[in-house]
Structure prediction request, 256 residues.
Amino acid sequence: MSYTIKSGDTFWTIAQKLKISVDALKAANPGINPQALQVGQVIHLPGRKPDGKPDPHPRPGHGNGNGHIVGATGGSNGGGGYEHYSGPASNYPPPSTWASYAALWKQNSALLKQNASAQEVEFIHRALEKVSASSGVDVRCILCIIVQESGGNVRVGTTNNGVRNPGLMQSHNGVSFDPKDPEGSILQMVRDGTEGTKDGDGLTQLHKKYGNYYEAFRGYNSGSVNKRDLNDPVGATGDYVQKAANRLMGHSWPNM
Prediction:
C-alpha cells in the first residue's frame, strides 16, 4: 500500500493518522528522508515492503525482533474511579485485571501532552516499547511510573534527598533531558528508570528482587519495603503504590 504526501504531513502525523508507528513507517521507506518530504511524493506503508514481500517490521505492541513487548496484548478497557487499595501485594489487583496497553496509552498520552510536545510524546512512546522489549518489564508499568514520577515532562527538575533523581522516571543518578539529542536522551531516561543505573536499581532489578510489581514500586519510591503495608511510605510517598495500581487499572480521578 502507498500514501501520497499532503501539505503539512510528517512521518509522525501520518503515523498518528493511520495508527502505525513512526519506526515502522521509516522501515518501509529506507530511501526517504523524513525531514525532506515533498507534497505529491509517494511513500510506502508498513505491511508490505516496496518489493511486495512481507514487512519484517511489525506494528507497535508486537515486538521488533529484539524481544517481546511485555503487557502489549490483553487487558481490559479500564475505566472507573479511584480505589483505596491497602495492605500487602496480594490485596492489590493482579496484572490479569489491568487495563490494556492500548487503553492506558490512550488515557495517559492525553496527560503526557499537557507537559510535552507531540514529538516528545512520540519519542516516549517509542522508548516505552523498546525498553519493555529489552528489559522484560511490563510496558504498562513503565508508562504508569513515567506519568507518576514526571507527568511526561521531559524537562522535569532533578530531586535530591541524598540521592540525585533526574529525568522522566526520577532514576537513581541517571541522565536528564538533552535538547541536542531529544530522542536519545528520552530513551536513556526510560532505560535508567527501568533497567537501573550503575548507582541504583530500576524496575527490572526490583521486580526480580520482590517477585511482583507492587513491592517493586514501593522499593523504587522508598528504597525499602514494608511488605505487610505497601502504603507505609518508609520515608517517601505513602500512596505511591496505591496510585500506581489505580493507573494500571485505567481508573481516573481529579488531578491524576
About this structure: The radius of gyration is 19 Å. The longest strand covers residues 2-4. The first helix runs from residue 11 to 18. The chain is about 40% helix and 5% strand.
